[in-house]
Amino acid sequence: MPFVKVNIQDETEKFQKEDPEFAREYAIIETEYELIKMAVEMRKQLGVTQPEIAQESGLSQQAVSRLEKVGHSPTLRNFLKYLSGMGIEIELKKKALEKDERLAV
């Protein structure tokens, strides 16, 4: 059987349209990825090194490096320590959701 090329982006979009639960979970993963990406960009803009964050946060340098890698899902506690290590805090705000967009908990 020959190998068939699959376009991951097309398949993901297809699953999101077909399965509302998949779409909700995928949106959460995308948000997590973007949040970590923003934090790493802020670290670089501030000129803070991974070892400096490790020292300030109490995380190991390896934990800081791992947190910044794509595909790693840090605990909330470690992510907050990471942010604190560079003097950043999170501010929450309510977002407007359509009735059918509310997350089922």
UniProtKB/TrEMBL annotation:
The HTH cro/C1-type domain, residue ranges: 41-93
Taxonomy, superkingdom? Bacteria
| GO MF annotations in UniProt | DNA binding
InterPro entries, per this entry? Answer: Cro/C1-type_HTH, Lambda_DNA-bd_dom_sf
| Residue ranges the record marks as coiled coil | none
Identify this protein by name. Answer: Helix-turn-helix
